[in-house]
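note to self — DONT lose this again. spent like an hour looking for the file last time. sequence + predicted structure for the chain T wanted, 257 res
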Amino acid sequence: MSNELEAVIHLVSGTARGWRGANRISQAKKQPEKLLKLYDIEASPFCRLVREVLSEMDVDVMILPCPAGGKRFRPEAKALLSRVTFPLLVDDNTGDVMIESSDIIEHLGRTYHAKVRNSKGVMRGVAVGTSVLSTLLGTRPSGIQGLKARPSKAPQQPLELYSFEASPYSKPVRARLCELEIPYILRNTPKAAKTDLGPPFFRDKLFKGPKGTTRHRQFLADTTGMVQVPYLVDPNTGVAMYESADIVKYLDKTYGA
């Protein structure tokens, strides 16, 4: 499947979800001192709910991928709790180890002082339903991305990915990182102004607004001269790169077994 067609599929998926996880809705007034850890399955609609809120709060998180058949982080998760479902959040700032997306979202909002959208009751049912729908809409003929483990080699250090949850170009990269069970620091890079709307080649010519509307957008502007996602940094090889198709190829070549 071409990268363009795949992006269109994920564009439809994001639209079905109302573009949750695209914009900074309620920035955390208190950033976690220690990096949060999320045992995550990219294809899980429940994990998506948590990642959306983290993106909207502009909070970073260490993603520990746990795809079906995975052997790298699933045993770790099972050692933490007797009953494990995903997502599973470890917050070393408070000592909390939590499952259930609604409880995790409530904890994030309460602990880091951000107003998050309703996560329980009827609203939770609607959120889960649209998240499931968007996951199904994003399914490729070859199967659901980010669901099953692939043979891989573990990196010595976690990678870093600048992304926001609703980005149609970031989805394939996060899915491959999950399938390869590669741990990575998710540097959430949500949009924060009208001048952030649209692809870089379009918005930069039309709006000519400031690029650094959030902390990571400022980093990308200062470091690369432009702002787009995904942007991958691999401290193991010194590689830093844009373009989702190229990143996926790099991951397969470097860490695929």
